[in-house]
Amino acid sequence: MKVTxxxxxxxxxxxxxxxxxxxxxxxxxxSDTPRPDHDVVIVGGGVxxxxxxLEISRTRPTRVLVVDSDTGPAPEATHRVGESTVEVASHYxxxxxxxxxxxxxxxxxxxxxxxxFSDGVNTDIAQRLEVGSSTRIPFVxxxxxxGRLANELARRCAADGVDIxxxxxxxxxxxxxxxPHSLTVRTGDRTFTTTATWxxxxxxxxxxLSKQLDLRRSNEHKCNAVWxxxxxxxxxxxxxxxxxxxxxxxxxxxxxSTNHLMGQGYWVWIIRLASGSTSxxxxxxxxxxxxxAFDTLPKATAWLxxxxxxxxxxxxxxxxxxxxxxxxxxxxHGAAKxxxxxxxxxxxxxxxxxxxxxxxxxxxxxxIGNGLITDMIVRDLDGENVIGRSKTVNTLFGTLAEMxxxxxxxxxxxxxxxxxxxxxxxxxVALYWGFLGFLYVNDRFVTVADDPSIVPGLxxxxxxxxxxxxxxxxxxxxxxxxxxxxxxxxxxxxxxxxVLHATMIDEIPDVTAQFDTNAELLGRVAGQLVELIIAxxxxxxxxxxxxRQIQAWQQDPLLRDVRxxxxxxxxxxxxxxxxxxxSAPVQSST
Length: 590
What we know:
Low-confidence stretches: none
Shape: globular
Helix content: 40-55%
Largest sheet: 8 strands, mixed
C-alpha cells in the first residue's frame, strides 16, 4: 500500500494535527526573520545561570551564551549566601546535573538542620534545647563552597559547548512577535551586540531584566542579614565536654550540620565548608534587632558577644583569619511575573525571588524554576507553542513562592518560644519531604501543564501549610511555661518523618496515589498537633484570650477536619508524639 502525506496526516489525532499546524505556522512566521546568534542568552554567571545553562545544554543541543560580569575562576570560598543545600537542591545537582562525583569529592556531606534555643545567657550549649537528628539521614545533602561549585559548573558548561563571555549587559531590547531579542554587552573596552530567541535574567540582586520590566516586588518579610567567613574549621561539637550531650549523637558529627543558634527575633548560622573555611551569619527581625546593631564586623562581633557568647569566643580565637564580611538589608523580595512564553523571557535565582535563608530554600527555588524554564524553552525551540504553558507554570511557581514565604513571614517572634518553634520545625520539614521534595524528585512540577491530576492535592497542601503557619503564631500567643525536654530527635523516633523521608527516596510506581497518601498523613500530623495543644490548654478557664483561641480552633472547618481524621486513625495507625514536648510551669518570682 502506497503511503502518502495525506494518509499519514489523516492518521494523526486532532491534538497531533493541531500541534503540527502550530509548528508549521511558527516556522513560516520565522522564515523571513534572521536567525539569531543564540537560542538562549543568560544574563549572569552565578550558580542560578550556570546550572540553567548546563541543564538546557544537556536536555537539547542548544546555542547558549552566558554573560558573566566576573572575570576568571571564583575563589573557593566565594562570598555568596547559600552554602547549605537541602533535598531538592541536592537532588538537582546530584541527579539532574550529574554532579554526584563533584559533590562527594569536593563538597561536604551535611548532617541536616540543627537548632539550639536560648537558655539564659547562652554560655553552655549543653543546656540549650536542641532539635536535630541523632543519626545521619539516608538522603544525602551538602554544605557547598559556592566558588568551587561555580568553577565546576563553568567547566562543565564549557565542555558542553556553552559560550561564557565576561562582560556586562548594558541593554536588552525584547524582540516583537517572533523577532529575536537584542542585547548590548560591554566587555573590557569593547561593546558588541548579540541576538537570541530567549533571554533569561540570572543577574542576582541586580535584577537586570526584572528592573527593566518593572517586575520587582517587595514583601512584608523585613529581615536583615550579615555574614562572614573565617579560614578555620570551627567545631560546635567542642563547645561542651558534657558526656550526655555528646551521647545524643549516635552516628554523625554536629559540626557537619547547618547549626542554628536561635533567640528572640534572631538566629545565627554556623556552616563548615570543604575548603576549610567556616561561614557565620546573623539573621534578625528589625522589630527585635536593628541592622545597625550588627552591620559592621566590629558591631557584629560585639552583638555575638552579647547574645551568643560561645560563638563570639570561638570567633575571637581566629579573628585574624576573617576572610570577608557582607551585609544584606531587607533581603526578601519577589517578582510580579517569573516566566513569559509569549515574550520569551524568564527570571531565575535571586533575579526572580529570594525569601529567607532559614531552611536553605534558595537553591531549591532555583532547581524548581530552572526545571520549568528548561522545559518551556526546549519545547519552544522544538516548535511548540508554550504561551499557555508559561501561564500555568508561572501560576504554579508563584503559588509555591507565596506558600514558602508564609513559612518565614511574621515567624521570627516564635524563635523565643522553643516549644512552639520545635513543632513548627518538624512540621515544616515533614511538609517539605512529603510535598515539595516528593513532587520534585518525581518530576511532577514540570508535568503539571500536561497532567493536572496532582493540582487538587497541591492546592490542599498549600492551604494546609498556610493554615498551620497561622496556627503556630496563634499558639505562640497563648503558650506559657518552658519546655521540659533538652533534645528532640527530629527523625529516628518519629514514624511519620521516616515514612515521608522514605517516600521521597523510593521509586514510586503511582506518584499521584502516593501523593494522596502523603497528604492524608500530613493532615493527620497537623490534626494531632492541634488536638493535643487544645487538650493541653482547655482547662485555662480564667484566661479569656486562651478560651477564645481554643473556641476559634474548634470552630475552624479545616482544623476540625484534620483533627477528626487524626482521632479516627490514631487507634489503628498511631503517630509518634515525641515531637510535641511538654512544658514545665513558669516559676513564680515571689
